Amino acid sequence: MAKILIVEDYKDLSEFYQEFLDEDTLLIASDGEEAVSLYKENKPDIVMMDLKLPKKSGIEATKEIMKIDPSAKIIAITAYGSTIGSKALEAGAKEVLRKPIRFNELRDTISKYKSL
User: Fold this and answer.
1) Where are the domains of the chain?
2) pLDDT more than 70, % of the chain
3) How far is Cα 31 from Cα 58, in angstroms, rounded to an integer?
4) Percent with pLDDT over 90 in the chain
5) What is the pLDDT of residues 85-108, one digit of tens each?
6) In angstroms, rounded to a whole number, what is the distance separating the alpha carbons of residues 8 and 48?
7) CA proximity to 44, closest of 4, 1, 73, 76
8) Are 74 and 23 in contact (CB under 8 A)?
C-alpha cells in the first residue's frame, strides 16, 4: 500500500482516480497550492500531478515539491501535449501521462513507482 497524492481540479477525474486506487492511502488536492501544502505535511510516496491547475500550475507545484524533496516521485498528467509535458519533466516530474489515461497505463505506471 502506498500513500498517493492526487492533484486534479476536475472532480469527476479525481473521483475516478480515487476509485481506481482505493487500495492505497489517498490525499486529494484540487490546486497547486494545496498540493505543495499536502506534500509538506504528508510526504506521499507518489504524486499524480495535473498540470493545468488553479492558483498555482502543476509545473510550479512540481518545482516547489522538488525543492522540498529532490527524490519526490511525481507523475505529470496532461491533455495539452508534449510542450507542457516536457516542461513538467524539466521541473522534476519522473514521467508524463497523457489524458485520457488508459486503465492499464495508469496501473502500470503506479506499480512501477511503488516498487522504486
Assistant:
1) 3-114
2) 100
3) 8
4) 80
5) 999 999 999 999 999 888 899 999
6) 8
7) 4
8) no
Inform me whether the pLDDT recorded for 82 exceeds 80.
Answer: no
Residue 100 preceded by cis peptide, ω within 30: yes
* Fold category of 3-114 in CATH: Rossmann fold (3.40.50)
Position 59 confidence tier, pLDDT thresholds 50, 70, 90 = very high
Cell, residue 70: 529532490
Q: pLDDT tens digits for 34-43?
A: 999 999 999 9
Q: Which helix (H) or strand (E) holds 3?
A: strand 3-7
Please give the sequence-ordered ranges of beta strands (E in DSSP) within 8-116, or none if there are none. Answer: 25-29, 46-50, 74-78, 95-98
CA 22-96-16 angle, 5° bins: 25
User: What is d(CA 109, CA 60) in angstroms, rounded to the nearest whole number?
Assistant: 22
- In this structure, are residues 52 and 98 in contact, taking their beta carbons and an 8 Å threshold? no
Distance in angstroms (rounded) separating the CA atoms of residues 108 and 110: 6
Say which amino acid occupies 23: E
Q: Which of 20, 83, 23 is nearest to 51 (CA)?
A: 83
